[in-house]
Structure formats: structure tokens, C-alpha cells
Amino acid sequence: MEGSNKKEIVEFKKNVVIDFINILYNSAKPKKQKNFTVTSNSNSDDDFIIEFNSSSLKKSILDKMLNSLPNKVYKSQRNQAPRGMEMGSFSFSMFSLKDNDFNNTEYQATLLDAKNKSISNHINNLLKYNIDLNDIKVIGDLDLSGCTNLEKLPNDLKVGGYLNLSRCTNLKELPNGLKVGKGLELSRCTNLKELPNDLKVGGYLGLSRCTNLKELPNGLKVGEDLDLSGCTNLKELPNDLKVGGRLDLSGCTGLPNNIETINKLKAIEKENANNPNFSLIWPDHLCKDADISAIKNKLENAYRQYYNNDEEKKQKAIKATDSADFPVYCLIHRFLTESTASRGSIKKIKDSAEILVDRISENPQLLEFMNESARPFLYACVNQPVAGFLELSVIAEISSKPEIISKIESAKILKAFDIIKEEVKNIKNNNGNTIGAEVEVELYNAMVREVNNKLLQDKIIEKPWPGIADGIAYEDIIKNFLTENNKDHISKEVIKRAINSSKEDMKTYLCEGHLQDTWAQLIIPSAEYRKNFKKKNDIINAIKGVEESEESQYKQISKIENEFRDKNIEYAKELTEKAYDNIPTNSNVEKPKAVQSNKQQQNTKT
Can you give the residue ranges of every domain in the chain? Predict the structure, then answer.
């Protein structure tokens, strides 16, 4: 029992603890209580001492105080907090103690479920009743992540370590005078609109997916990394922004795609040229090259028109990683930006992309089937998007032809591509080896270029195929397959099976092969196709409006979709047949110029 009469003295840091004790005992700011005494520490204005009448009372009082804090407080055992969302598991310390017993694990606890008893409720109530919480100083790290009810924090809050406010979705602003010694995590604070002008962050500042953040304060200085990824409403960057580490702007689709923004980012890079820790992740829709930015901006506008009747997708941020809704954008972004040094003239790369994007801009409905064509080419190295770009360029060329017979002649290029794709699997190098699947696309791209050049040289075709590149990334890996014998063999196959293909062969290829859906959309008059498409969707929407089982609805909708598709394919066959039938017997239109040139060469040799 002697221990019960022993007085226990604990020295606390920070006056926030007094406020919680005051609330517990319904007193304004007590200097004396029946069982404990609160006095100021003469050595520090920030410290205060609680003298308990017994150790058991000390334990009882501290238990009550800690239990009243939904976010329990304990001494951090870690020297450095992880970055990003991992900080959610990191604790904070609000006081130091002379009594080492308090550091026992029985007092250590993780965050409580923010949905149940949240510290945000306590802070909101304290501020509501005008209880002075200003000038709080936290020695270590303060973790309030996931406090969805937290609306504001006290002014002049100072945190010596890391402050984690991630997923505080009701937090609209930060307090004036906020100073954070290490890192400040605000990711997914979706109601946060601005930062205080005097904010100071010594380390990392995470603002990822703060989708309502529109601007940053002038003079903002961040000691380490600044993560602004996914801040879709951010409209501009301050001129005097200082970042000590990485600046991540990926997904900042609200930054205007203009020369001013590009020059500002270039200036930031130049200013940090001698900083080994600095790097800049550009937004997907911007590029250091103003021409490339202009091309991508034009394609973004085409997508907006294409999704004009879909409010969700029309407003969606266009990202170069969104292969679900913007696959053509993803493909062209990679075509324009990856491994360009090894792919020949950058001017030719940009010119090819501009031609394709111009045609899409003229007719955004091309994206209906181009999206499907692009998706298979979005994986692996840049040679996949390059191969996909070839196909999209020819589809755009076909769409630009006014007559169906002209479209058929352009479609022979697609057939040539399929033949080359098939043949490169079987050709051998000088050692008698066939190509491996892992570099097959590299050989395909290179062989398309070589066959195109040979057909031009031999005057089999009059102009280059659309989208042909000068150079191929990683070409040195497959160059021993580009022998004259292989090029001659594949060129002959292309002439025989594509350029000189018969009417029946082309009808089968276009109307019954893998291109039949694309071909139908390319030759059915657009007004007629859109009318039937709308009629089909109206029927489907009517089915969805009827209360039936999901299985029943699925069967009905599948039937309507298949009927629509089958009708289009049959109609495309009719149009293709009529296009051939309407050519006069003595006309040269049926025989493309490429074939005529070939015949003329044969006659000359004879």
C-alpha cells in the first residue's frame, strides 16, 4: 500500500493534452484538482507538469485520457516515415515522459476505425466551442489519415515529423501558419481547394488525387518530392515554385496544353539542372516538343466529340495509360515519345502522326473501330505501338477515299501487312534460324519498311504506304534476317496475294475475315450507320427499362447486338459486290495502277 501514497510526476509536451483533460473533468483550465495538480514548467513555456497523488491514480487518469483520444498517442519507434499511402500505418507522439513505464506496449495502440470514434470529432468540437487549440506543437509524427469528418485544423499547427492527412475527404483548407518538418501527406483530400500562402514543408508534399485543388501558393517551397499526380483541376503552377526532389505532374490534365505551360516546365527543369535529386514527370498530354503537344491536343478534342453523348467519358481526364476508353490516344502517345532517336527522322514521325490525327479530327467516328484495332498493340516495347500505328494509318487512308472501289484498293495494303506478318515467322537468317516470338514484331516492322521500299523502287506502287518509319527500335537484333533473298521472297508474295489479288479474294478478305466489322463501318454511309446504331441502342435501352432478370435481359441484348452486326456485314457484302459490278468491262479502274505498272514491266521484259 505504500506505493499508493507515492507521488508520480509526469512531464508532458504540448498544451493539447491539457484541453483533453479539461474536457474530461468539465473545467476551464484547472490549476488544481482533488487528485492531481497541473503546473507550468519553469524551464519551458511549452511544457507542463501533472503531479499525481499515486501511481495507481496516474495509470487510471492516463488510461482515461488515452481512451478519450480516438487516435491513441504513443512514442514513435521509427526514425523515418515511409512515403505515400504507407504512412497510414504510422503513429505519432504528442508528448514525452520522464516515467519510462508509460512506454510499455500496453499503452501503444494503432489507429481506431475512423468510422466509429474519430479524433476529427474531438478537434471539430474543440474548435466549435472556441477552445484555444492554436499554436499546437507536435514533437513527432501526427497521423490523422482517413478522418473523413475532419473539417479544419488549428492555426499555427507545427509538426516536427510527418503529418498524414490522406483521405480526409471533408478537409477543405489547411490552417495558416502550418509548418511540417518532414513530410505532409494530403493524397485523396478531394475537397481541398487551396493551400495556405505561408505553408512550409521541409520534406515530402503529397497531393496526389486532390481533384479539387486548383492552384498552388506563390513562393511554395518543398524540401523533397512534390506529388501532384491526378490533380485534374490544377490550372497552373506558380512561377517561383521550388522543389528539392521529384515533381510528379502525371495526370494533371487541367494544365493547359500551350506553349506557356511547356516553357514554364522547361524553365523548372533548367533551374534544377545541377540538382541530382530533381526529376520532372510531365503530364501525359504535354510534351517538351510543342508540335507533339499540338497533335495530342487535337486528338483529345476528337475524343471529346466522339464521347459527346456520354457525359461521364466526355468529362473524364484523358490519360496516356487509359487503354479502356482512350486506346488510340495511348498508342499515338507512345508512337510519338518512345525510342524516337532510333526510329529515324523525328519530323517524319510527327508528320505521320499529324496526318492520322487530322483524319480522325475530320471524322471522330473513326474512333469507333480504331479503338478496337489499337488495344492489341499497347503492350510490350514501342514496336507494338509502331505496328499498330501502321494499321491505324491505313484505316484512316481507306476512310478518306470517296468511292468503295478506291477503299478496296487501299485495303490491299492491310492485306499486304497480314501477309508480311505471316511470312516473317517462317523466314530464316544466314545461320538457318527462324525468328523468336519475342522479337517477331521488330522484324515485322522492319520488313514492312523494306518491302515498301522495294515496291517503290520497282515501281509496283507509286507512293509509300501510310505510317512507314525510317528506322526501327532494336533493329540490330533482327538485321541478319533482312537478307535480299528474304526481302525478294516476301515482296513477291505481297504482289501475288495482295496487290494482284482477285475480286473474290478481296471480297472474302474484307467481308468474311477479321476485318469484316471494320470494313462494314468503313463503307456503310455514316448517316445510315448512325441511324441504325441509334435504333439498336433505343431497343436495348427499352429492354433495360423492363423489370426482368439479368439473364433474360442479357440474352435479349445479345440477340439485338448480333442481329445488328449480321445485318451490317451482309449490307457491306452487297455494297462491295455492287462496287465491282458497277465498273465497266473495259475500264482500268478495277486494275490498280500498281498492277498496271507490274504488267507494263512484264511486257517490257518480254
Answer: 75-213, 291-512, 527-605
